[in-house]
Amino acid sequence: QKEVEQxxxxxxxxxxxxxxxxxxxxxxxxxxxxxxxxxxGKSPELIMFIYSNGDKEDGRFTAQLNKAxxxxxxxxxxxxxxxxxxxxxxxxxxxxxxxxxxxxxxxxILTVHP
Amino acid sequence: GAGVSQSPSNKVTEKGKDVELRxxxxxxxxxxxxxxxxxxxxxxxxxxxxxxxxxDKSGLPSDRFSAERTGGSVSTLTIQRTQxxxxxxxxxxxxxxxxxxxxxxxxxTRLTVL
Lengths: 114, 114
Description:
Radius of gyration of chain B: 13 Å
Shape of chain A: globular
Largest sheet of chain A: 6 strands, mixed
Helix content of chain B: under 10%
Helix content of chain A: under 10%
Structural class of chain A: mainly beta
Shape of chain B: globular
Largest sheet of chain B: 6 strands, mixed
Strand content of chain A: over 45%
Number of strands of chain B: 10
Oligomer: heterodimer
Strand content of chain B: over 45%
Radius of gyration of chain A: 14 Å
Number of helices of chain A: 0
Order of helices and strands of chain B: EEEEEEEEEE
Number of helices of chain B: 0
């Protein structure tokens, strides 16, 4: 079992729809959860992070965390063609003021079609 | 302010040669990380430095890989006797750590070993 699992997709949604990206992780000691967006040929760009159970909203993005189910998701509302990219879920067992490596999923390819 | 910078952006080398990759973290960030991203392998952790603590080298794939960080800032990743399987994009990230473990990535160095 991989430490961080994502559906590779591709996930295709029409413009204006909600895109739902899912991620599960195996390490129950994980404390910090991140979503990165990566355009083709570019480096990962941090778009959301979440540490506590529940929802966290930032503009069109909502991250959801359920530690009991070891599940984290990203919702993108009013999807735009410019949201088309690979979305990487990353997990760390560091939190607060500590440091540590990120373990990444394989990424989900999202395509938003006009 | 300036983000993470890496050099060179591209490096082509012959099998068996040594290469050095450089990373300049965001000013004031005390933690620096190296990852690599290759086709079919996703993003994998290599090594990280935090302040004056001993680096976490747990992700280095072999003893041909080493890294140093001088003066708590710039880092160099060295790969000795390169092999074709070392071909990948090498990504550097830095983090501040005071509000969590958010890591910000540089543009990467694409290494091709012929």
